[in-house]
Each structure stands twice: as structure tokens, then as C-alpha cells.
Amino acid sequence: MHGPYPTETPQPPALRDATLSLGTRVVLQNVTFASRMGELVALCGPNGAGKTTLLRALAGLLPNSPAPDPRRVAYVPQGAHSAWGLTVAQVVMLGRIPYGDAATAPVERAMEICGIAALRDARVDRISGGEARRAMLARAFATEPDVLLLDEPTADLDPAAAHDIMRLLRRSAEAGKAVVTVLHAIDLAVQYAHRVVVLGEGRVLADLPAEHALPAIAAAFGMRVGHDPSPRLLPPP
Ligand SMILES: Nc1ncnc2c1ncn2[C@@H]1O[C@H](COP(=O)(O)OP(=O)(O)O)[C@@H](O)[C@H]1O
Ligand SMILES: [Mg+2]
Predict the structure, then answer these.
(1) pTM above 0.85, yes or no
(2) What is the number of the ligand 1 atom nearest to the C-alpha of 55?
(3) Which terminal residue of the chain, N or C, has fewer Cβ atoms less than 10 Å from its own Cβ?
(4) Per residue in 136-190, pLDDT tens?
């Protein structure tokens, strides 16, 4: 095969009929999920549904899950920014560790697209939660992965910044990456994702094109879909 991948076409992470117990709890039950190159998938569902566990399984972080190539797959965990004392640029540079290089071009590009370049010399423990979140995202982009696995990447962001990041993820998918993101912001999930996978109590409840996903998401939360045309915020044009 020819082209940018001389040896093989990249296979994005997948699980087939996976069941996982942690302690006495069944956390994933018969879960089948495959990410695809060129696709942005949102994982939605109530707290404790197994979203983080599924993402960690895809990242190869659970016992018995095969470890993917860290140059191909980047993972940004939920919450936790533990890089105190480092500058934003140094945190983003961590994304180059799998290559053992200190290539500056991917680091600069990552800071730029994540909107954090102006804070390059700021210490990550002295910036806002949303800014730190962008720095962690930029770290993942600096790896130039084929696959991005993100756990609630918009959690600390203001609404405009959240739309910014979602557009970046959509663009990244459209440029050919496989992007899988846990999202609690249902409006962002249905607006930006290609596909929505709904989890509940460790099971896949629905796996649908985003435009058809709202009823299944509502059901997972025990909610209803309203059709009230009330005012709402839209991203900038
Ligand atoms: N290491 C662990 N040991 C035992 N139970 C765990 C562990 N990690 C997660 N769980 C349990 O698995 C369930 C799913 O967790 P998680 O995947 O974090 O859910 P979500 O991200 O959807 O909120 C929760 O009930 C949680 O308490
Ligand atoms: Mg979680």
C-alpha cells in the first residue's frame, strides 16, 4: 500500500462484545463499539454509565486491553491537570514524548489551533480551568495522532470556547482522524458529532447518526424532547 502510511492503513480502536467488571460491579456489558477514521463520535449517558471506562478501554488503559501506539492514539482524561510548575508550552511539548523528539512545529500548531498560544509562557497551575483544558487538548494535538480520545473536553469551557473546541474536533475528524469524545453537553453532541453512542448502566443503548439521536439521549436520562422554540445561544457566525 502507498501513501502516508507505508505499512498499513490505521485501524481505529474498537471493542467487540466487551464485558468488564471492576470490583463487584459490571461496568461494561457486551459493549460493541468501533471508531472510524473521518468520524466524530459523541459518547453520552448518565453519570456512572461507563463512558470513561469505555474511553479508557479504547485507549488501552484497562487490564487486558491492548495498548495502542502512543504516536497514533492520544487520550485526554476527564478533569485532572496535574502538571504544576510547567508552562503551557512545556505541557504541550509532552505530546512529543512518544516520538522522543522536541519538534517545535507540531507544538506551535497545536497551541495555535487550540487557542492557547498567547499563554505559552504562563504556568499551567496559574491559568483558568478552561485555559488548562485547552492546554491539555493542545498536548494531544501536538502528538499529531490518527485517533483522539477525549473525556468531557468542554467541561471547564465557557459556551463560546466550547463551540470553538467542538468545531476543531469536527474539522479534525473531517481531515481524516477518528475522534471519540465523551460529552455531557447534549446540544453540542447532536450539533457537532457525526454519530452519538448512548450508554446506560454499562450497555450501549443506542448508536445513531447525531441528527436522530436526541430521543435516545433523552430516554437515557429519563427526560423528554421539547419542541419549544425558546431563545438560545448560537455560536458566532
Ligand atoms: N476502578 C474502579 N473500580 C470499581 N468501580 C469503578 C472503577 N472505575 C469506575 N468504576 C465504576 O464504574 C461505573 C462507570 O464509571 P465511569 O466509566 O467513570 O462512568 P461515566 O464516565 O459514564 O460517569 C461507575 O459506577 C463507577 O463507580
Ligand atoms: Mg466519566
Answers:
(1) yes
(2) 17
(3) C
(4) 999 999 999 999 999 999 998 999 999 999 999 999 999 999 999 999 999 999 9
Locate 92 and state its grid cell. 504541550
Q: Closest residue (by CA) to atom 18 of ligand 1?
A: 52
In the chain, how long is the greatest CA-to-CA distance? Answer: 54
- Assess whether the C-beta atom of 159 lies below 6 angstroms from ligand 1: no
Instruction: Please report how many Cα atoms fall inside a 13 Å half-sphere around the Cα of residue 165, on the Cβ side.
Output: 31
Write out the three cell numbers for 103: 519538534
Q: What does the domain layout of the chain look like in residue ranges? A: 10-72+146-225, 81-144
Does ligand 1 have an atom closer than 6 angstroms to the CB of 22?
Answer: yes
Ligand 1 touching residue 27 (CB < 6 A): yes
Does any ligand 1 atom lie closer than 6 A to the CB of residue 51?
yes
Ligand nearest to the CA of 79: 2
Pick the CATH number of 10-72+146-225 from 3.40.50.300, 3.10.450.50, 2.60.120.10, 3.30.1460.10: 3.40.50.300
C-alpha cell at 21: 467488571
Identify which of 21, 25, 183 to mutate to test ligand 1's pocket (most ligand atoms within 8 A of the CB).
Answer: 25
Task: Supply 212's cell numbers.
Answer: 436522530
Asked whether 48 lines ligand 1 (CB < 6 A), one says yes
Rounded Cα gap, residues 188 and 164, in angstroms: 11
